[in-house]
Amino acid sequence: HNCAICNAGVKLSHGKGHDTMVRKPGEVLCVDLFGSREDMYALLLTDKATGLMYGNIIESRSEASTARIAGLKFLINFFPMFGKHPLILRSDNEFDTAEIHDFLISHGMKSELIAPHSSFQDVTAERANGLIQERIRKLLKQAGADTTFWPFAFKHCVFLNNIIPMNWKTPNPVSLAIGISLQTPTQLLAFGQEVFVHDKQEQNKLKSKGIASMFLGYAKEGFVPSLSQVILYNLTTGQIYRTESWRAQPLAFALRQSRYKRTKLNLFASQCRKILGLQFSAGNDPSCAQDTKI
After folding, report:
1. Residue 271 confidence (pLDDT)
2. Among the listed residues 195, 211, 194, the one whose alpha carbon sits nearest the alpha carbon of residue 255
3. Please, where are the H alpha helices in the chain?
4. CA dist list (Å): 40 to 61, 90, 224
């Protein structure tokens, strides 16, 4: 290996990633972006020690810095409640911006960039991306839904990752992050499950007040959101609801039922921004109130 000709034939390395020793939750956060799917992107922040995930949907790659800062603010507020504080943010060079550097410095954090074209150095982020994308495909396949529903499947996958134990020996990521045993909720709804919503506009007492809908996920932000409020897709009008007045049909997936005519979902990024409650959205949108149509 002392020959200059041999050394000049260096190949792309696929060696090991960073060997940073991480012992405490929140010590190292890994971030990555994937998309575009239906003109939207997904930003995913993953805690290296526990596997805890935080995800957001954005409209373009130009919003990545703003969305990442919003996610960091959420995690910086979350971890100190349990005696922890994020120290390092690992990412690729796409997130090497002055805006992010200034934010990290102001919060006592450091940026750790991987080498160009060396995604293997950020194994945590790449593994999390692959895992979430695989689960999205499975949820859409199970529900019989097309890819226009992927933002909701993404949010639901992140929720399931945080609340379901990794195996019978290891608690769920939320429990590992906060250091308190958190019981996994029982009887969770399946993505795409048939759900009936109470129709408050129907005045005829002899008519059924249930509107056939499809379950898209649980509403409200947080690692353990409220299970009483759900996000639903109206199978007749194609509208999206957030409501607490619902009843699920066991073991039935709405779009697989032959009695329902498939309505095209006109899902735009602005609608996703409203109904999914992105953290970096400014102000409170009255159209996002519960039981309202988007």
Report:
1. 53
2. 194
3. 4-7, 64-78, 98-106, 123-143, 150-163, 173-178, 269-275
4. 9, 23, 25
Query: So what's the pLDDT on residue 6?
Result: 64
Closest CA to 31 of 59, 66, 81, 77: 66
How does residue 272 score in pLDDT terms, banded at 50, 70 and 90?
Answer: low
Helices 150-163, 123-143: axis angle to 10 degrees equals 120
Distance between CA atoms of residues 203 and 199, nearest Å: 9
Max Cα-Cα span within the chain: 89
Q: Tell me which residue of 179, 222, 160 sits closest to 50, measured CA to CA.
A: 179
Instruction: For residue 44, give the nearest of 137, 147, 161 by alpha carbon.
Output: 161
% residues pLDDT > 70 (the chain):
73
| CA-based nearest residue to 97, from 31, 142, 47 | 31
Distance CA 132, CA 155 (A): 10
What does the alpha-carbon distance between residue 61 and residue 71 come to, in Å, rounded to a whole number?
15
Query: How many residues comprise the chain?
Result: 294
Residue 79 tokens read as: 């971890």
Helix %, strand %, coil % for the chain, to 5? 35, 20, 45
d(CA 53, CA 42): 12
Q: What does the pLDDT read at residue 262? A: 53
pLDDT exceeds 80 at position 247: yes
Q: Residue 85: which pLDDT band, with cuts at 50, 70 and 90? A: confident
* Both tokens assigned to 273: 């921004």
Q: Six-digit token pair at 261?
A: 């005519």
Q: What are the backbone dihedrals phi and psi of residue 194, each rounded to the nearest 5 degrees, phi first?
A: -75, 130
Q: Tell me, what's the pLDDT at 155? A: 92
* 17 φ/ψ sector (left φ>0, alpha ψ -120 to 50, else beta): beta
Is 215 buried (19+), middle (13-18) or exposed (0-12) by CB count in 10 A?
A: buried
